[in-house]
Structure formats: C-alpha cells, structure tokens
Write a structure and sequence with these properties.
The structure is a single chain. By secondary structure, the protein is of the alpha+beta class. The protein has 2 domains: about 120 residues, Class II aldolase/adducin N-terminal domain (L-fuculose-1-phosphate Aldolase, 3-Layer(aba) Sandwich), CATH 3.40.225.10; about 130 residues, L-fuculose-1-phosphate Aldolase (3-Layer(aba) Sandwich), CATH 3.40.225. Helices cover about 40% and strands about 20% of the residues. The chain is built from 11 helices and 9 strands. It has a 9-stranded mixed β-sheet with strand order 2-5-4-3-1-6-9-8-7, sandwiched between helices. Strand 7, helix 9 and strand 8 form a beta-alpha-beta unit. The mean pLDDT is about 100. The structure holds Dihydroxyacetone and zinc ion.
Length: about 270
C-alpha cells in the first residue's frame, strides 16, 4: 500500500486549501471542500474494509451510495491543512442511502466532516445528474462577491450580466451564469436542498451575505471558476460608485460566443 500523503488527490487538496487561504477566501474556519474519489484510486492507498468509525450524516443522498470523498473537517482552519492534513481532512465513504459515512482516514482528533456536508453532498448529486464528470464542490467567502450581495440586486440574470460585463472572459468561463440564493441559515439540510436545486442549472451559486459555492470536474477548474467570478466582483466593487462610461455590450458578448464556441444562458443576452 502506498503512502496516502503522496496521492495526487491529497497533494492537490492540500495545495488548493492553502491557495484558497492565501487568497483570503477562508478566514478562520470559513470554507469547505469535498472531492469525490474513485474506489480504485483509494485502494492504492487505503484498505476500504478498514473503517475507523461511522459518522451519521443527517440526510439521504441515495445517488452517492458507496461513493468516496476527501473532505475538509468541521471547525477546521484552511490555514492549518498543510501542516496537519490528517487532523483537518478526512476520507469517507457513504452508505445507508447516504445516511452514514464510514471514516477511512483522517479527522484524527475525533472530528468530522464540514458542517456544510449536506450542501456538499446534495450538490454533488445535483451536478452528477447534469455532468457525469463532476468531482468537486467548493465553498468559500471571497470578499468582493460577498460585498456585491449588499449593493447589487440579487436577481440572477442581472447579477450574472453584471459579472459578465466586468471582464471579457467571464462569459467564456461561466456561460451558464451564476445562480443566487437569498440569505439562509447555513449548515442546514434546507440550504443544502436549495443549493443543490440551483446547482442543476449553474456551477456557481452565490450565498447572499455569506459566500459562494462552486462545482467542477477537478480542483483547478473549480478554483478557477470562483477566482474568475471573484475578479469580476472586485472590478464591480471598484467601479459601482463611479459613472459608467464604457461597458461590454451584448453585441460583443455574442462575438465572444462565436469566437469561443460557447452559448450564454438562454434569455440572458439581447
Ligand atoms: O464554517 O464556511 O458555511 C464553514 C463555513 C460555513
Ligand atoms: Zn461559509
């Protein structure tokens, strides 16, 4: 059996959590990541029969039965992941229709997965329903996206159009736009269900006055998605209080659609 600390998925997870912390997106215990793993890659490093303990999840996610996840821990700081991965991260396998999770590695201080596990698992289910390649759900608190939810309408079309207008490549990176939830109590099955519903039509879901969720096929892609939206929000927060003299027009967005072979969300462009 190979050392799990050398597994590409572990190395990438630690680098990503560290990078997110360095971007200022994950103060204190803010943010969480879950990465779905294939059984065959887990088996190279761990005995799938060696269950350390079983942790109830408090929800059902039948489509994820038997699936493996590398996930950040509740109350844990992204800042610390690189120094003590085995305390701050865990590898679990879901069973009993998702109602229980077998811990195979990590959370060595007796901890467990993120408080946002419902939103993560329900979002994985929703994304896999529209994209069989989806592997990652990522949540964090980027300052400019958060700031924008205080001063911009939360209408999804308007929110998306504003982000698209802030950087030329936004529409290319997230042509389906961003979905937006109003303020809701975090850590609950209710916000999990609402997030998953929004994940059916976009890989980015803003949690107003809280943060953002991203989903994608790998950690790099998902990080890049949030990074691009956050950059756009940063530009918006720099210019929102100034007279707008120029913008990217819908006609120019259509040129981008043609040039990059993407299709903007139906009805979002004139
Ligand atoms: O504490 O970000 O949404 C982790 C969170 C909760
Ligand atoms: Zn949060």
């Amino acid at each position: 059996m190979k050392d799990v600390m050398t597994a590409p998925f572990m190395v990438e997870m630690i680098r990503t959590a560290t990078n997110m912390y360095d971007h200022g997106w994950d103060e204190r215990n803010g943010g969480n990541i879950s990465l779905m793993l294939e059984e065959k890659e887990v088996k190279e490093y761990l005995d799938p029969g060696a269950v350390l303990r079983t942790i109830p999840t408090g929800f059902e996610a039948p489509a994820l039965e038997g699936k493996y996840f590398l996930v950040t821990g509740t109350g844990k700081y992204f800042k610390n992941v690189q120094y003590a991965p085995e305390v701050n991260l865990g590898i679990v396998r879901l069973r009993d229709n998702g109602q229980n999770a077998d811990l195979l590695w990590g959370f060595t201080d007796g901890g467990k997965f993120t408080s946002e596990f419902p939103a993560h698992m329900m979002s994985h289910e929703a994304r896999l329903g529209v994209d069989a390649e989806n592997r990652v759900v990522m949540h964090c608190h980027p300052a400019n996206l958060l700031a924008m939810t205080y001063v911009h309408t939360l209408d999804e079309k308007e929110f998306t159009r504003t982000l698209w207008q802030m950087c030329t490549e936004c529409i290319v990176v997230f042509p389906e736009g961003v979905n937006v939830l109003p303020w809701m109590l975090c850590g609950t099955n209710e916000i999990g269900e609402a997030t998953a519903e929004k994940m059916k039509t976009a890989r980015l879901v803003v949690w107003s006055q809280h943060g953002i969720y991203g989903a994608g096929k790998d950690l790099d892609e998902t990080f890049g998605l949030i990074e691009t939206a956050e950059k756009a929000a940063e530009i918006y927060m720099k210019i929102a209080h100034l007279p707008r003299v120029n913008t990217i027009t819908d006609e120019q967005m259509h040129q981008l659609e043609k040039r990059f072979g993407i299709k903007a969300r139906e009805g979002y462009l004139d």
